[in-house]
Amino acid sequence: METLTAVRGFKDILPPETQLWRHIEDTARKVFSTFGFQEIRVPILEKTDLFTRGIGESTDIVEKEMYTFHDRGEESLTLRPEATASVIRAYLEHALHTSETVTKLFTIGPMFRRERPQKGRYRQFHQIDAEILGPDDPRTDAELILMLIQFLRTLGLNGLTLDINSLGCPECRPAYREAILGYLHGQEEQLCSDCRRRLKTNPLRVFDCKVDLCGQIIGQAPRLTQFICSGCRDHFAKVQQALKQFELPYCLNDKMVRGLDYYTRTTFEVTAGSLGAQNAVVGGGRYDHLVQELGGPDIPGIGFAIGFERLVSMIPEGIPLTPPALFIAALGEPALQRAFLIGNRLRCGGIIVEMDHAGRSLKSQMKKADRLQCKYTLIIGERELQENRALLRDMSASTQEEVCLDQFEEMFSNRAR
Ligand code: AMP
Predict the structure, then answer these.
(1) Quick check: 219 pLDDT over 90?
(2) In terms of DSSP bridges, do strands 76-79 and 67-70 run parallel, antiparallel, or are they unpaired?
(3) Domain check: are 262 and 140 in the same one?
(4) Is 234 a member of any domain?
(5) Residue 163 and residue 45 share a domain
(6) What separation in Å is there between the alpha carbon of 307 and the centre of ligand 1?
(7) Which atom number of ligand 1 is nearest to the Cα of residue 115?
(8) Which run of H or of E encompasses 265?
(9) Position in ligand 1 atom list of the atom nearest CA 61
(10) Pocket of ligand 1 (CB under 6 A)
(11) Where are the alpha helices (DSSP H) in 74-172?
């Protein structure tokens, strides 16, 4: 019979890589909680409207990448392509804004986008997502970026670039939109079909196009930074001032428009040269009107999403596994039975123990203990068992001592503590 495989673009995460995933999650929880964040867990399935309203109908995600289906012919549901809209939906549904003026939330989990699978791009991928709802002052932006960089540094990552830009606000963006349209007028025919469509729906999106000729044309276009209003300019200057205070190096990138419609003012990306074509590890920015667009009060927000798979691929060595404290090598069925009891009772006490139930030769069991880098090996032979004793070998010092089997659990628990 044909064996079944996973769905294209959906991948298994196997041990020992899972250990690295846990390490990254633990590090995020630790660093984020220092900055006052709390974890929220939201469903992976939402009503489709949440994303069409939240992310924007003219974005690539909503236009062509969502996994949307009718739930038994009734409601239209979508596997979440990102987390911000869901976090805000939960924030409003549970009226979190009524109890606190500042809400800092993070969530970690899978996202789903039907993109063309390739290295660094999957259809189910994972993100670490952090959001600050409430304040709109530039210090908040800088604090969020500082936390992000602190997290990446704690993971030991180097060679990263932080790009920042300001996307302005509803006050200053319309004039810029007109300027872009004016600049591209007469050049429409040279643009790709996607960009011609973008001109009608969201001209800024032309900056995202990967087609060479579109890139060359848009490269000469006026930049949003020349158009932003004094409020946005001042806000952006203060964000930069604060980043400098923390000595966080950054690049101003006025071509970075990000792929989602909801961003206003500060936007940022972290990229890594080592990742090749799919080089963005983190994307984020301010969304001062999203809460209102999703039916809530006028509450500003800012957040980021870190691509988990890309983060993992940048830590090639992984992290060392914790080796077992003890291997029990037993010879003969009665000794195996005793090893089974002692080993599992020690495990219940929190000690990592390995053994081999197959009853193989002492030599092959010792080899396995070596391979697993066990600190000690307890050797129980048939004669020793009858005499209620065994040999405890210190694997790195290559020394051994005789121990009393009845007292071994207590003795070893004390030693391993
Ligand atoms: P975005 O939500 O599009 O701003 O993406 C934020 C981050 O998520 C990106 O910088 C990537 O690291 C990661 N990401 C987005 N899409 C994918 C994907 N299809 N596969 C793997 N990682 C992704």
Answers:
(1) no
(2) antiparallel
(3) yes
(4) yes
(5) yes
(6) 5
(7) 19
(8) strand 264-272
(9) 3
(10) 82, 113, 115, 121-122, 125, 127, 259, 280-283, 305, 307, 309-310
(11) 84-93, 138-154
Task: Summarize the confidence of residues 379-406 as an average pLDDT.
Answer: 96
Q: Do residues 105 and 39 make contact, with C-beta atoms less than 8 angstroms apart?
A: yes
43 domain residue, yes or no: yes
* 91-110: average pLDDT: 97
Residues in CB range of 324: below 8 A, 6 or more apart: 352, 353, 354, 372, 373, 374, 375
| Per-residue pLDDT at 318 exceeds 80 | no
Domain presence at residue 320: no
Query: In Å, what is the CA distance from 171 to each residue of 16, 85, 179?
Result: 51, 23, 14
Query: Residue 259: which pLDDT band, with cuts at 50, 70 and 90?
Result: low
Q: Where are the beta strands (DSSP E) in 116-215?
A: 124-133, 160-166
C-alpha 327 – ligand 1 centre gap (Å)? 43
**Cα 259 to middle of ligand 1, angstroms:** 10
pTM for this entry: 0.90
- Domain, as residue range, for 383: 326-416
Mean pLDDT of the chain: 93
- The enclosing H or E element of 64 equals none
Which amino acid, 178?
E
Identify the three-state secondary structure at position 238: helix
Quote the tokens at residue 94: 């549970």
CATH of the domain at 114: 3.30.930.10
Angle, CA of 176, 179 and 183, to the nearest 5°: 145
Q: How many domains is the chain built from?
A: 2
* Domain annotation covers residue 98: yes
Looking at the CA of residue 121, tell me the nearest atom of ligand 1.
Answer: 20
Number of residues that make up the chain: 417
The pLDDT of residue 260 is 67
Same domain, 38 and 148: yes
Pairwise CA distance, residues 181 & 227, whole Å: 14
Look up the CATH number of the domain holding residue 366: 3.40.50.800
Amino acid (1-letter code) at residue 9: G
- The domain boundary residue, chosen from 267, 287, 313: 313
Kindly state whether residues 309 and 330 are assigned to the same domain. Answer: no
Pocket test for ligand 1, best of 59, 118, 125 (most atoms within 8 A of CB): 125
What is the three-state SS of 69-93? EEHHHCCEEEECCCCHHHHHHHHHH
Phi-psi region of 137 (alpha: psi -120 to 50; beta: other; left: phi over 0): beta
Q: Look-up: residue for tokens 């089997």?
A: 405
